[in-house]
Amino acid sequence: MMAIIPVVLCGGSGSRLWPASREAHPKQFLAFTGDKSLFQDTLARVRGPAFDRPIVVTGSDYRFLVAEQMRAIGVKGEIVLEPMRRDSCAAIAAAAEIAKARDPQAIVLVLAADHAIPDIKSFLDHVARGAAAAEAGRIVVFGIRPSRPATGYGYIRPGATTAQAGVAEVAAFVEKPDQATAETYVADGYLWNSGNFLFRATDFLGELERLAPEIGRPVGEAVAKAARDLDFLRLDPEAFGRAVSKSVDYAVMEKTSKAAVVPSDFVWSDVGAWNAIWNLADKDENGNAAQGDAVFLDAENSYVHSPDRLTAVVGVEDVIVVVTRDAVLVVGREQAEKVKTLVARLSASGRKEATENLKVFRPWGSYDSIDQGTRHQVKRITVDPGCKLSLQSHFHRAEHWVVVSGTARITIDDKVGVYAENESVYIPLGALHRLENPGRIPLDLIEVQSGSYLGEDDIVRYEDIYNRG
């Protein structure tokens, strides 16, 4: 059997896991059950001789974060940038076109970047079953045997068995049910729709042309006209923008006669809300679980996410507490799905905490906001080894830099200096300047800004190796 090409869909905001997950740094890039992010865990599941280099489909805002997290675990692959969101079908179609160009007979495994599957061996056993059906021309979906009558998932009604062992035809896809209907579905042997797929690229694209040419044709054109930008492949925005926004279930899976399902027994979660994190976590004898520094007293079946500070909960049951540096969430476990509604309300009222983090990631590293007033702002800046910021200037602020650790090479107008730990430098208002890390360890420094305007848009870039505007 030829190597399978993994396709990882890496978009979405993960608002149900606020305040840890925000649009600027969504859940797929966060670690909830170990030291790797959900995205990195997804990539780790599809390493080895059975798999070819992955294709990751994401948005431009996440491109450097994707590249850095892939680099951190030693994975190389194609990073494809969507110009705008067009739901899952267009993203999958673009990846299928790229996979077909790599190998006309390519088998593609489509995975969401933000799902948790702890038992890798069992997962790979089910992929092998699905691959045999994909080679026979089927478009395969993985259907999870329900552990409970959940109302947050779509369901699949399996039909007759196919010629491939462990694979059934799809009799019907059904929408998310109410509680009573979900109980009936579970009793009748329905499966959760995991949203993960396996197929030959040519079979999927053929069905897309037949069933949804309003998606397939513009996406095909967007791939054909794609342009290279550093290590990324940018889909043509004009062509991609003409694709209809529709999920792959609506566009193809509910209409095709080639749909098949692998009834799957491996543990799976779409990590859709905080109660899902509690379900996945290791718990103490009272059913409590935590990530970070937490203390429980007379508490039961509760979860604390507090990576930056001690959080103590006393005398509570079935509660989730999430603590970040700028927000605290307290919610009943059974009400966790309502967090999405809360985030929408925060956004509508203009609260930046709804979407932005205090820690901001950049292609060269990151910065943390420590303190801010009307005419000053303090940041902690981390520059990765060998990286550098753009050559830039500011109209409205001056800056003071103090090196905390590592070595900084700093350009100020026509002078270049090297600064070590505990040394400082002043950047006058309007000066042309650049910060670089020439060393082999991260460079940490404290930046104090002062001036009449401190916004991130007060940056004029003259040279930028990351092709930012």
UniProtKB/TrEMBL annotation:
Domain Mannose-6-phosphate isomerase type II C-terminal, first and last residues per copy: 350-464
Gene Ontology molecular function: any one: mannose-1-phosphate guanylyltransferase (GTP) activity
Q: What is the species of this protein? A: Siculibacillus lacustris
**Protein name stated in the entry:** mannose-1-phosphate guanylyltransferase
> Which domain of life does this protein belong to?
Bacteria
Q: Name all Nucleotidyl transferase domain ranges.
A: 6-285
Q: What is the lineage of its organism?
A: Bacteria, Pseudomonadati, Pseudomonadota, Alphaproteobacteria, Hyphomicrobiales
Against Pfam families, the record matches this protein to:
ManC_GMP_beta-helix, MannoseP_isomer, NTP_transferase
Please give the family membership noted in the entry: Belongs to the mannose-6-phosphate isomerase type 2 family.
**Enzyme Commission no:** 2.7.7.13
Query: Its catalytic activity?
Result: alpha-D-mannose 1-phosphate + GTP + H(+) = GDP-alpha-D-mannose + diphosphate
Provide the MannoseP isomerase/GMP-like beta-helix domain boundaries.
292-346
Keywords (alphabetical) are: GTP-binding, Isomerase, Nucleotide-binding, Nucleotidyltransferase, Transferase
GO biological process terms, alphabetically, are: GDP-mannose biosynthetic process; polysaccharide biosynthetic process
